[in-house]
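tool=predict chain=A
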Amino acid sequence: MAELTTSRLSLSLPGFEHVKRGWHEAYAAYAARLNPGEYYVTKSDEAIYTTLGSCISACIRDRISGVGGMNHFMLPASVDGGSWKAAGLGSATRYGNFAMEHLINEILKNGGIRQNLEVKLFGGGRIIANMTDVGQRNIDFAHDYIQTEGLRVASEDVGDVYPRMVVYFPTSGKVRVKRLRSLHNNTIIEQETQYLQTIEKKPVSGEIELF
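tool=predict ok
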């Protein structure tokens, strides 16, 4: 992506001041960049983008008002290499629940209506060799969560062996996905491995209050 500049920078919603944002000439829009473990919600006509390997991003918006956002998350690897369900809500799935519920809550808090929510999923590639298929576990979790919450996936690009760059425009619902070649894999693998080690050592804390 072209380098961002901070000229003409609009205000972010409260609580998202830490997310790196700037004007992106290629899309003629402000763009917020997500790192693993982050999420971002906007009411403005701006883009949100991230790079995914094994991680998942859910792009969720109110299709009527246009308020929406994106997250970027990964479940911790299970000790026995089993499915995410084997770990239970108190451990592995808590990271996915944290990412999904906080994103949805922020959208609702900023004027979104639950029955208007549109969900799109991306990522979950199998790019980390010699370990369990974390990407597929992330996909399975996301599908199960969305079904359990009574939501529906409008579109998705998940799985396979490619990392992806995803650019999301919540006001319109448009998504641009670029599948990256192996040239980019080492950087993404290093980033996701560090993130995985971090979340396995430091549990998510705090309760989530649903609207």
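The helical segments are 92-109, 134-148, 185-201. The radius of gyration is 16 Å.
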